[in-house]
Amino acid sequence: MKKSIMMLAVVALAFSSCAKNETTAETATTESVGTEPAAAGGGQEAVVDNDSAPDIVKLAVSNPDLSTLVKGVQAAGLATSLSNAGPFTVFAPTNEAFAKLPAGALDDLLKPENKDKLNDILSHHTYVGVIKTDYLTDGQSLGMVDGTPISIKMVDGKPVINGTINIIASVPAANGIVHVVDSVILPN
Question: I need a surface site. Which of 57, 143, 153, 178 has the fewest CB within 10 A?
């Protein structure tokens, strides 16, 4: 009987010691890289990291001119995907670009029953890999995540997408690059 109690005490001490070491290791790792673990149920986009460059989603969230895009990314369920390692090139339409869509089109796309259609449109703005503007060339075709390409044409030394869409700014992110564009790129 005494032997059984002693064995239980040793096992309990071992488990207790392991739990403390895991907590200490997790805390040390978290503190050393300036991040906090994701909240329960949160994906990569829920990780708090104030030291590293922001990922594509965090970059978009921090820019008020991209708030419509952020709503779309969240409604399409793409926040986790675009927060992951990538690398990705995202052509990010501004709020003004979304305002150019026909009346009611955006509200319709944001409805839960149109999640797949919204996902297709936003996937047409995403390329797997990093392509800086310096690497865009006249006549180039890029295969987007949705499976359909966009074309690049050089006009006055600047890349234009599908003949009419201009890149306003380019911002590097931790998991790729964001090219802010002046129109929504609709699949053909």
Answer: 143
Q: Running DSSP on this structure, what letter comes out for residue 63?
A: -
Q: ∠ CA(108), CA(113), CA(114), 5° rounding?
A: 50
Fold of 52-181: FAS1 domain (2.30.180)
The residue extents of the domains of the chain are 2-33, 52-181
User: How big is the CA angle at 107 (ends 102 and 111), to the nearest 5 degrees?
Assistant: 135
Residue 133 gets which letter from DSSP? G
φ, ψ for residue 153, nearest 5 deg: -130, 135
* Model confidence pLDDT, tens digit, residues 107-132: 999 999 999 999 999 999 999 999 99
List the Cα angle 32/36/42 in 5-degree steps. 150
- From the number of C-beta atoms within 10 Å of its C-beta (0-12, 13-18, 19+), residue 13 rates as exposed
Q: How many helices (H) and strands (E) does the chain have?
A: 7, 9
pTM of the model: 0.72
The span from the CA of 85 to the CA of 163, in Å, is 31
